[in-house]
Amino acid sequence: MTSDIIVFEIQDQIALITINRPDKLNALNKAVFDELDRLLDEVIERSDIRSAIITGAGEKAFVAGADISEFTSLDAPSGEALARRGQLVFDKIENSPKIIVAAVNGYALGGGCELAMACHFRVASDNAKFGQPEVNLGLLPGYGGTQRLTQLIGKGRAIELLATGNMIDALTAFNYGLVNHVVDRGQLITKAKSILAVINAKAPLAIAASVKAAQQAYDVNKTGYLAEARLFGELLQTDDCREGVNAFMEKDLPFLKADKMTRRSQNLFC
Ligand code: COA
Q1: Beta strand 51-56 with 107-109: parallel, antiparallel or unpaired?
Q2: CB of 107 sitting under 6 A from ligand 1
Q3: What is the pLDDT of residues 113-155, one digit of tens each?
Q4: Which residues lie closer than 8 Å to 163 by C-beta, 6 or more apart?
Q5: N or C: which end of the chain has fewer CB within 10 A?
Q6: What is the CA(67)–ligand 1 centre distance, in A?
Q7: Dist CA 156 CA 46 (whole Å)
Q8: In this structure, are strands 121-125 and 100-104 parallel, antiparallel, or unpaired?
């Protein structure tokens, strides 16, 4: 089945899920989340699907984040609810009994990096870029990024990326262990499919059990996700966040005006 916002195709028992908003760099708005949630159920339930690939439409982006334009109307409770909703959809990916691979074909930023990290593993094209730039918006990642980035690359590297908002290229992501393979852009889906062809020839119950057991290694402290969602909501109502989000919408630079420094330092968050 094909919809406008996500293209869904099945070939050789592999579902190819393509987020399809290339004019907005495939940013995750509510409609994308609802459709992704529905399609994940389809992947998990359908017997003619053994595994799945998630990728982004167009030349530039896998997914450039949550849709920032939807942040302007949020307060703390609705912001926390948005984060929890995103976390639950991404949990569905992480806990899927069928392997789901991210084929990262460009910017994987914010919610896009979080989406890629929720997948069981990642294959990247040589133009891929990863980052958690929420700090530029006065925010932190809200869809599990603070937890999964730390799990995948370790606390020191994770905190550097979270606090700088810097992007890393595909090779650095490979060196950090964030992606398993880096290939030429034209080879990305072929590479992901070739790995899944091997997996699809193995025992489905054993694969599901392996995912479940591996996941247990990370389930020791689920409270981190709840804390992340709560902090996301709380940050949304700060002046920093209003300034950061407005600056993105206006294509301007936030946090540079000296007269605002006093207010910000009085408003420290810990
Ligand atoms: N939410 C909503 N819209 C987004 C978006 C996002 N996360 N990321 C990109 N877009 C939109 C832009 O507003 C622009 O829309 P417009 O053409 O209507 O103005 C369009 O996608 C193209 O993006 P643009 O910024 O013009 O492309 P670029 O090549 O100059 O820059 C990025 C690419 C990825 C560096 C830049 O788009 C960016 O910083 N995006 C936000 C990343 C982010 O902060 N993600 C975390 C969100 S929580």
Answers
A1: unpaired
A2: yes
A3: 999 999 999 999 999 999 999 999 999 999 999 999 999 999 9
A4: 135
A5: C
A6: 9
A7: 41
A8: parallel
* Count of structural domains, the chain: 1
For ligand 1, atom 39, the nearest C-alpha belongs to: 64
**In which domain, by residue range, is 170 found?**
6-200
Confidence of residue 190 (pLDDT cuts 50, 70, 90): very high
**Does residue 216 fall inside a structural domain?**
no
From 24, 107, 168, 228, mutation site for ligand 1 pocket: most ligand atoms within 8 A of C-beta:
24
Instruction: Please indicate, yes or no, if residue 267 is contained in any of the structural domains.
Output: no
Q: Relative to the CA of 137, which ligand 1 atom is closest?
A: 44
Q: What is the pLDDT of residues 95-118, one digit of tens each?
A: 999 999 999 999 999 999 999 999
Residue 255 lies in a domain: no
CATH number, domain of 26, equals 3.90.226.10
Q: Given ligand 1 and candidates 19, 23, 25, which is best to mutate, with the most ligand atoms within 8 Å of its CB?
A: 25
Residue 61 inside a domain? The answer is: yes
CA nearest ligand 1 atom 18, residue: 24
Q: Are 72 and 32 in contact (CB under 8 A)?
A: no
Residues 196, 175: Cα–Cα separation, whole Å: 23
Check if 27 has its Cβ closer than 6 Å to any atom of ligand 1. yes
Which two structure tokens, joined as six digits, stand for 182?
Answer: 């880096």
CB 264 near ligand 1, within 6 Å: no
Amino acid at 242: R
Regarding the beta carbon of 25 and ligand 1, being less than 6 Å apart is answered yes
